Every structure is written in structure tokens, then in C-alpha cells.
Amino acid sequence: MPEENNRVPTLPAEAGLRPTPPACRALRVAGEIDLSNRHELDEALRAAALLGEDIHLELGELTFIDVGSVTVLVQAAMRLPPGRRMVLHDPPRSLRRIIALCWGSLGCLEVVDTA
Amino acid sequence: MTPGAHGSEATFRHPALLYRADDEFLRGTLGFARAALAAGNPVLAAVPEPRLGLLRAELGDADVRLIDMADAGRNPGRILPFVLNAFADEHPGARVAMIGEPIWPGRTPDEHAAAVQHEALINLAFAGRPATILCPYDVERLDPTVIADAERTHPVLLDGDGERASRAYADPAAVATQCPLPRAPADADELRFDARALHDVRRLVATHALRAGLAAKRRADVQLAVHEIATNAVVHGGQPAILRLWNSDALVCEISDGGRWSDPLAGRRKPDADGVRGRGLLIANWVCDLVQVQPGPNGTTVRLHVRR
Q1: CA-based nearest distance B197→chain A, Å
Q2: N or C end: fewer C-beta atoms under 10 angstroms in chain A?
Q3: Backbone torsions φ then ψ of B29, nearest 5 degrees
Q4: Structure pTM?
Q5: A71 shares contact with chain B (CB less than 8 Å)
Q6: In DSSP terms, which residues pair with B67 in a beta bridge?
Q7: Distance between CA atoms of A64 and A61, rounded to whole angstroms?
Q8: What angle do CA B18, B50, B138 make, to 5 degrees?
Q9: What is the pLDDT of residues B42-93, one digit of tens each?
Q10: Per-residue pLDDT reduced to its tens digit, A40-76
Q11: Per the CB < 8 Å rule, is A66 touching B272?
């Protein structure tokens, strides 16, 4: 389920209303994402895109994501205007694999590992 | 033997090379590869060992992409997207020359049936594209029924006597839908599921994968592959969607649904040109050791095999 990072006051619903320092803004996506809750991810990403900055996703606690949901994520990254990108923090191996197989490398997506 | 199986014409050619012993294999494949190189065409050869080694020794430093088909094509469903289409896509505008030997002695009956589907689908996937795919068949060591299948899936046959049209060549769309599946064992674990039960599907797969002794990464892979096919079933297939699991020499996961199989090339082409259903199948083809697709008038069955 997409949910607020504890460092982020207001994502996704009122995200555009309360600006926070860019370095702190991140959307935490944890647990399992599939057909049943994919729309929530989509809505959260659309709200995050309205902030006019790069989108940071914290994915270290994501235990499952399917291809259709990764497609939602990639499409959100592709909708970003030139110069903005989506940064995936600690994504699970399966997510990297799906992106590599289905899209190869994408300029609008960056992967960052903490450890 | 005159494998003049390539040229400047824009049409697709898909000859079978019916060879006896290594010398006929080499004469046919090397003649083909060298003529393509002389014409400036990109060349790929995907064959199993020991013939891969024979080609490597003969071709030396020539610019030919050599691939071990026993590895890259163990699951025949992988060959089109990850070997043949991938190489053709690397060379837009060029006439590509590819040698692909998808069937060799030692293939299981299930693998053989999937490889026949793959050979038929080549004709659909490359229709109208500037390419030649030469498929060697070992007529001395393969069963005559295997050679008969090669004659159904290749419009042109080459052998020691030369080149001829195959009189047995059959409609590739029809051949591609033929996949005889042995019945699932009576004691297979069974789960009926709908869109709300995909979590249960994944959990059951994880349990069986653990029991089958798969390593953690393989468990995650097979869980994803089965989930994708199960998602296709509930989104496109209609009821009833049923998952069956059992262990033989591999963990076998079978997903049946009530839908018609509308796109024979789903999961076998360049992913960004494909729909979401195709992406799920592409992942399954990549992950699994064998993917069997049986389209029928009353539903579709997809069977995934994952070895340790």
C-alpha cells in the first residue's frame, strides 16, 4: 500500500497544499501491490507529480509488485516533464527485473540503494 | 547443398536444414553464415553444444553472434523475444541472417511440443520482415515425427539434395494453437480464484515452491510468473479461473480460465510494442524453464514448469 513516509507530512491527498523541503519529500510504498490496490498507487503518483519536483519513492519495504503496477509506476515517470525524474530508493529485485525486461533503461527513472 | 537462403529481397525466409552428421551441419550453416557476412548482413547462430563449438572453431574471428541454444532456448517461449527478435531489433533496416536450432535429441515431449509452436510462430512474427532464419534438424538422431513437424512449420526444406518447397507446410496460426497437454495429476493441489484472491494464489505458490526446494530468488520469480498469468486470467479470461500445482521433475503451476486466446504472439515480441497481458507472459517466459499455452474453444490453459 502506498502510504505517507513519516518524514512527509501530506502525501498523497493534500500534497500540493503544504510544501515541504524537497530533500524530505518521499512517498513510501510498502507491502504488496497488485490489481486490488494498483489504483491507490496511481492516485498517489499523480498527486506527487503535481508537486513540480522529482518524485522519490521509498521501496525498501515493498514485498511484492506485479507487472501491471510497475507499468503504472513507469508511466507516471514517463509523464514527468523533461528535467524531472522519478527516483526509486531500495526497490526489490523483482521490480528492477521487470523494468529491465520490459523497458530496459529509462532516462526518467533512477535507482538508488541505501546500503 | 545450396542454402541460398538469404538475399536482398525484403521477404522473410524460414528454411529447415535437414542435416545428417556434423559435416552436413557445417556445410549448410557455414555456407549460409559466410554468404550473409559477404553481403554485409548481421549473423547470429543459436545452436546447442557440441555444434556451437564446431561453429566457433570454424568461424574464428568472424563477426557472428554465437549463443548456446540449450541455455537461451531451454524454454522455447524465450527464443523469439530474447534471441531472434532481440537480434533483429538491434539491426533496424538490415537483412538479418539467423541460425536457430530449437529442437535437439534429448528434448522432452513437452518441450518438443512447445518448440513446434515456437517454430510456427516464427512465421507469424517475421512475416514481411527482411530476415532469414535457418533451422537445422538432425535427421539421423531425431524421431521421424519431429522431422514431420519441421516440414509442417518450414515453408522451405534444405538437405543434401538441395532446396525444395515443403508440401506439408501448414497454416502457422493453426499449428501454433496445437498444444497437447497431458492431464494434470488427480492429486494436484487446486484453487479456484477471482480478482480478490490473487494474494491467496501467491501464497499457495510460495508454499509449493518452498516444498519443491526452490531457492528464495526462484521462489520470488515463480510467484511473480504465476501471479501474472493468474491476473491475465481474471482480467481477460473470465470464470472459472483455476490454479493447479504439483511436483514432477519440476514444480508445475497450471492456470486455466474461460477466455479465448486472442493473440498467438503475446509474450513473444518486443515488450514496449506489447500490451500488459503480453508483458506478464514475457516475464513468465523469462522466468520459467517451460511455458505451455493451450488455447481452446472453451478456455485457455497455461502451464509453467520451474526446475530447481
Answers
A1: 9
A2: C
A3: -75, -40
A4: 0.88
A5: yes
A6: B46
A7: 9
A8: 15
A9: 999 999 999 999 999 999 888 999 999 999 999 999 999 999 999 999 999 9
A10: 999 999 999 998 899 999 999 999 999 999 999 999 9
A11: no
